[in-house]
Amino acid sequence: MRSWRTRVRARTEWPFILTGLATAALLVVMLYYPVASVFIEAIVIDGQPSLSPLTSVVSDPFYWGLFKFTAYQATLSTLLSLALGLPGAYVLARFEFPGRKTVRSLTLVPFVLPSIMVAVGFAAMFGTRGPLNRALAAVGLPKLELLFTLKIIVLAHAFYNAPLVVRVVAASWESIDARLVETARSLGASPRRAFLDVVVPQLAPAVLTSTLLVFIFTFMSFPIVLALGGLELATVEVWLYDRIRNLRLQEAAALAVLEAAITLGLTYAYLHYESGQAATRQVAPRPRERLSDALPLERLAIGVYALIIGIVFLGPIISMLLASVTDVGGGFTLRYYEFLLARRDVVVGTQPDAAIRNSLLFAVGTLIVAVPMGVVVALATARDTLTARLVGTLAMLPFAVSGIVVGFGLLQTVVFGVEVFGYELQVTGAVAIVAAHAVGAYPFVVRTVTPALTSMDNRLVESARALGASRTDALLDVELPLVAPAVAAGAAFAFAISIGEFNATVILAEGGNVYTMPVAVERYLSDRTLGPATAMGSVLLVVTGVSFVIIERIGEYGGIE
């Protein structure tokens, strides 16, 4: 017969078990089942298996061209991201200068900055009345028509993804053992030869992982291409969205399956190379030099690079902020912000105050759902076991599957309603959008909390369990207090991601009043109303900027090293 202590301990295990089961159920209902329904739609016709939807897409020259163009623009975007990011990684890894920590923190920008806001910034800077064309006109040069061209899409992608390259490669560069370089030099190697033979091979995995990551992101890019390219420069994601809007659902499902096959393969390769870099070793990092001590030619090159970075990265943000307070005649105005506070519909049928309110409410709802989910999955993946690796791979599905696909799957399953054990399960409106946001946000909580858990001394938990604490007690009294900063950073990520989420939201908000700030921005841009779009984009910048400051203050738990 079990003792009283054993029975009590068994009962107190239930909260931990039930939380894990609830997380698994949510993932099944809100992620795996909807995504699976999209894939089934592509291989089943009238209840019978059929490959005709897939073969019709594969055999269509139009779709071959669509995939080729998507891969082509992703390749160009990746190359430009590398060209802008690698010099930045070199500067961060080699030199010490005022503001270095702030610059490094800014490499988190792609994780918190809404991509639709980036599109607004580029439209404001490179538009007909933008600062660039006004400057060209002032010196008598012809205007540049970059909007709705491949050039501006590639440039916007580089703005968004070059910081990822900097973050990944700089971390790897800083971990190179200086003793190996010194040994090569002592054996007669020149600085160039030592760099090529010692440094480059050790940087190659980081460059490859960042290349894969950027290619995946730009291959699946949606808001930037939609806003700056439209259907004239449609990628797979944009055309998938168009097929859904036109109720060509089976065609959309076939496209989603083919796209997922490509992105899942690339994501697997990325995770494989990233895990290969995860092994730690004792190194003697090379001390960073003061930037003022660099060679004159090197300082000149860094200065030119800083100027380019300033134009590419600060230009769109400053242009958006200026456009939000500038009227058509060039004078100062606050009417675009007054418009955001006005309770009235515009031509595109979108009330700005409702969009702001919805975004904030959905972000709070996302926190309530995504943070516990992320902590539970982090606990399940923090140990190096086969089960943990399997759970970790399945948990990262939102990284490999488009938000459009998730939104599409939710729409045709739980939003329209499904029957479960004789009862109809239906999730609509705000609840469906919060679910989609939570699905996209919880992996970032996982990626911030898991490193903190793996670095924690297991003996603390084992001691608590040996003294009679249940698994739930050990979690609440030992583990969570120790990883609280990581949980807080994950929560800030989840909030920022919800505020900026566009892909799934634009599908689920179609025809309803649950649109958010990013959806409102896209609608204003599609109506060629740049003023309201820049004002709403500026509000988005402030909200996500606060999230960024929180993440930076708490510590660099987020991002990808």
- Look up the CATH topology of the domain at 54-119 and 150-302: MetI-like fold
Number of helices, where a helix is a run of at least 4 consecutive DSSP H or I residues: 26
- Unreliable segments (pLDDT under 50, ≥5 consecutive)? 7-12, 556-561
Oligomer: single chain
Biggest sheet: strands side by side, in what order?
Answer: 1-2
Helix content: over 70%
Structural class: mainly alpha
- Summarize model confidence as the mean pLDDT: 83
Task: State the shape.
Answer: globular
The level 1 CATH classification of the domain at 54-119 and 150-302 is: Mainly Alpha
Q: Can you give a write-up of this model?
A:
The chain is mostly helical. The protein has a domain at 54-119 and 150-302: Orthogonal Bundle (MetI-like fold). Helix content is 74%, strand content 2%. It contains 26 helices and 6 strands. The protein has helices at 4-41, 52-58, 61-94, 100-105, 109-112, 115-126, 131-138, 150-174, 178-186, 191-219, 223-228, 236-245, 249-276, 296-323, 335-341, 352-381, 386-395, 397-400, 403-415, 429-454, 458-466, 471-482, 484-500, 503-508, 517-526, 530-554; strands spanning 44-45, 48-49, 95-96, 289-290, 418-420, 423-425. It has a two-stranded antiparallel sheet. A two-stranded parallel sheet has the order 3-4. A two-stranded antiparallel sheet has the order 5-6. β1 (44-45) and β2 form a beta hairpin. α3 packs across α8 (150-174), α15 crosses α26 (530-554) and α25 packs antiparallel against α26. The chain is globular, with a radius of gyration of 25 Å. The N and C termini lie far apart (51 Å). Residues 7-12 and 556-561 have low confidence and may be disordered.
